[in-house]
Design goal:
single chain, alpha/beta, three-stranded antiparallel beta sheet
């Protein structure tokens, strides 16, 4: 189901602009100054409302995270949810953003200025992952997370799948040696396809399960909203970890 368009989405994002990467090339050149600490970089492709990236950033705090989301209206929620989790405030009752000290910034205001240590280790960017990732240097990423991406089930759409061999080659280039891909989906045909693509890629399949929630990995698994909903309906969750062999 397509998400209802968020009113004043651009204005809402602008208020929390310090959390948003709008120029990926500038980010690449200055990423050590974007975050509070100079930690290895991890990427989530298709962050949705941000449940996973928020949880992962707390579970494994010694990394920096860049969450990519293609749809602006979804990214608005991800950024605002993350800001709330960091104690940066909440939506103001009459629009805009109210910081934790009670200051209200109306829609149309300049981006709110927060201290870098308040912003934590997650940043967000809007755009197509294939285009954005081409700007990242070789060996610049520690891990890539892909959660419940579009299965592109129609005939002729195979090359659009985020686990298609050409995407895997791109991931291999930007990942460090032994860097990893973590992939989850409820779509079994897509998962079977992904296992086959990994076999002919620069990656080695390190782990996989067809029932994540009843596996030994469940204790460290961070569920997305989509995952909770579909698991509750009886869908099994598939998961794989692939290691870069370059």
């Amino acid at each position: 189901m397509r998400m209802k368009k968020k009113k004043y989405g651009n204005e809402r994002l602008n208020l929390l602009g310090q959390l948003l990467v709008t120029d990926i090339e500038n980010f690449v050149e200055n990423k050590d100054n974007v975050y509070e600490a100079k930690n290895p970089l991890r990427i989530e492709i298709g962050c949705g409302k941000g449940d996973f990236i928020r949880g992962k950033s707390v579970q494994e705090p010694n990394y920096n995270y860049l969450a990519i989301e293609k749809i602006l209206d979804v990214c608005v929620l991800a950024v605002e949810n993350y800001a709330k989790s960091r104690g940066l405030g909440d939506l103001a009752s009459n629009g805009g953003w109210e910081t934790s000290d009670g200051t209200v910034y109306p829609l149309g205001s300049e981006s709110i200025s927060f201290e870098k240590e308040q912003l934590g280790n997650v940043r967000f960017t809007i755009g197509d992952a294939k285009e954005l990732l081409t700007h990242l240097p070789d060996n610049s990423v520690d891990s890539i997370f892909i959660n419940f991406c579009d299965p592109w089930s129609k005939k002729g759409h195979t090359k659009r799948r985020l686990t298609y061999i050409e995407f895997l080659k791109m991931y291999s280039r930007i990942l460090s040696p032994n860097g990893k891909i973590y992939f989850k989906t409820d779509n079994r045909p897509l998962f079977d396809f992904s296992l086959e693509e990994v076999e002919k890629s620069p990656f080695t399949l390190e782990y996989h399960t067809f029932d994540l929630h009843n596996s030994d990995m469940n204790s460290v698994n961070i569920q997305t909203e989509y995952e909770r909903n579909f698991s509750a309906k009886g869908f099994s969750i598939n998961m794989l970890i692939a290691k870069n062999n370059k």
